[in-house]
Amino acid sequence: MKQYLLFFVFVYITGCFDLEDPTCKAARIESKPALNGIVKKKYIEEHNHDYRVLEISQDGEKRYKLYFGEFMNPNFYHYVEVGDAIKKSANSLTYQVVKQNGRKKDFFLNFNCPDTLSLPR
Asked: Please, are residues 105 and 117 in contact by the beta-carbon 8 Å criterion?
């Protein structure tokens, strides 16, 4: 009986803790939805840890906010301008920026996950 109790305690404890690195978890969550929209606003939220924010409009209505902390690729944020198109396939972390002149550039945002190779491209 004591063995069963120890087994259940072990299963309960290990099941309650998420051992995945938080940055990798954020990357996996962010990779799931597809994105296809136009950048409507670009700003810094000074009241929110100076996060850099891109507001993207999809289908002319839905607004999507993409937040950039120190863990994300700063080159991507600096490259993007209001009016640019941003595309991302579902289950991917590769964002394509299409400039208004038609020039395209891809960025892989790994969120500074230490296990980058396991992330979806």
From this structure: no
Domain that holds residue 22: 2-118
C-alpha–C-alpha distance, residues 121 and 58, integer Å = 22
- Domain total for the chain? 1
Identify the bridge partners of residue 58 per DSSP, sorted by sequence position. Answer: 62
Pairing status of strand 51-58 against strand 85-88: unpaired
pTM (2 d.p.): 0.76
| Contacting residues for 39 by C-beta, under 8 A, at least 6 apart | 54, 55, 56, 80, 81, 82, 83, 84, 85, 86
- Higher-confidence position of 98 and 59: 98
Range with top average pLDDT, 49-58, 60-69, 78-87: 78-87
